[in-house]
Amino acid sequence: MPTTNDTTARETGPSVLIVDDEFSVRDSLYEWFRKDGYHAGSAENAREALARIQERRWDVVLLDIKMPGMDGLELQRRLKEVDPDLVVIMITAYASVETAVSALKHGAFDYITKPIDPDELSHLVRRAIEQRRLKAENLQLREKVEHLTAPGTLVGSSPPMQKVLEMVRSVAHTDATVLIRGESGTGKELIAQTIHANSNRRYFPIVPVNCGALPESLLESELFGHEKGAFTGAQYRRKGKFELADGGTLFLDEVGTISAQTQVNLLRVLESKEFTRLGGSEPIKVDFRVICATNQNLERAVEEGKFREDLYYRINVFSIHLPPLRERPEDIPMLAQHFLERFARQMNRPYEGFDPGAMDLLVRHPWPGNVRELANAVERALVVGSPPLVRAVDLPVRLNEDARPATGESLADVERAQIVRVLERASWNITRAAETLGIDRVTLYNKIRKYGLRK
Amino acid sequence: MATLDLVPIYMNDRPDLLDRLGEALGRILHMSIRQRTPAFDPEAAYDRSRGQYNSTVMLRLLLGDPGITGDRLLGVTSVDLCTPVLTYVFGEAQLDGRGSVVSVHRLRTEVYGLPPDDALLYERLQKEAVHELGHTFGLVHCADPGCVMHASTYAEEIDFKGPGLCPRCLGVVRAAINQSRAAT
Ligand SMILES: Nc1ncnc2c1ncn2[C@@H]1O[C@H](COP(=O)(O)OP(=O)(O)OP(=O)(O)O)[C@@H](O)[C@H]1O
Ligand SMILES: [Mg+2]
Ligand SMILES: [Zn+2]
Ligand SMILES: [Zn+2]
Q: Which residues lie closer than 8 Å to A276 by C-beta, 6 or more apart?
């Protein structure tokens, strides 16, 4: 490997001087800039930096804020005496961000914290060089056009889904906590991913935590991480989800199932964005956006004392309700076609669509398992059927049963089945179901009692 | 013919990626490809405090492995790589040197909350492999946005560029390979 003082890279490209007393930092940044076509140079202390600034013109100086001898602030002042237009970027450890902020007041272009995000570094340096160029030409900085990623494959054109999509669009680019509610299989996780993919945090991970799948003790160490020896079996230090989500999004799935003790701890982290690993004492600062999902009635859980009210208010800032599929049957044809195309591609089978009988069954089924159930049904149909069209017989038997007039053939059986179907589709909203059936509410209540129907 | 040693590191679950990559690299670089099992313990590159693997250390381990003797070597790993200064890297290479390493971790769409996409994963891996190897032939980042030597710091940027080297970069690589062949 070349020494860090070797400045043999291109003499023509923009130039960057790295000033840091730590060898690994100098070496790694030097290599990075060299590969990026910069003319790079390095200095390990203030004296050396001042010597280099006399030797040639540098476009950007990356300056460690904490160095033995002269500190970064003082060095910045001295360097700017030599070249007033010099663009200085401060490098700092988390602990000294306050100093970096004061460096900004004293004319630093910006600061970055170690370890440095490579994306941030390249943008920052490019912007710094651009600014120096524009300054030289006495031009105004132009606003950069924000590049947006294409939205995910979220299907749905019904009015309720349009409303959901609008909410997703409006909340995605904010940092607001989002609570996604809806029955199982309605697409809560997909919505969380879509929000993340359209947020400014999209180049960082979205970290899902299934709160319902883990016992209390495991969930805590999953979230907080632990130090070596924090408990039996903790052989290594391990980062928790809070840390892994730093910069990105933490997706707390089934948030309603969290135990009382974990609720307390979680609330504290959400409020302070600071925590310590299990068995550790050092506070760790994190920056993530929170998205929660639940298929439970959180208000009832609060009333029953199972879910903390303060945590409820903390996560219920912006809430998106995903209606069950039976309340938006208009979406079924489009969703079904979407899944058909996806699975046909995967299986490499030339399916084109559904015949009218099959589509009729799909649209009439109440889909208690919602979109997930629909997707499964379509997948199975492609396996058992033969291209190009899915037929009614290819669909699960329960769909065909819905359509048949009967468990028995009596008028009462037909009536009972019809009432069940309508009630389910209306989510047991009695007024709406009665309207659909063309009877009044009292009559409907009586029939529910007569047939012993239950939600 | 100059040889390139491909070294899988924690890639047991995806030998197919290595096979495909080897085949493509042989074609693109006109090198003979060998797969080599590492004799070192990659855990030596693990950075406990970061929960990631230090790419510089990984590169040093590769270069120090007596069983890996090719003219060029490329480590391919499923673990997340970083350096003490940078939060992550897709890979690292010696500029005008012998060694390089790439990670598939951040090339996976799932890491960004998107559905898995195996075709895209492989496409990205091949681009990053050619890119890092390009550095070992002395190439710095190319201004041509379609050239695989164009810099990319996040996965979507990898998708913008093409899979191949622009004529200028390709010329440099071919010349370097011919030279190393002449030397041996
Ligand atoms: N509007 C939609 N467009 C396309 N696919 C969808 C849509 N809604 C849901 N899906 C798909 O349906 C399946 C179930 O969705 P998801 O896992 O997001 O549901 P969920 O609400 O999180 O369910 P659970 O509460 O059981 O975890 C997934 O495969 C998802 O991609
Ligand atoms: Mg879910
Ligand atoms: Zn590169
Ligand atoms: Zn090029």
A: A224, A282, A283, A284
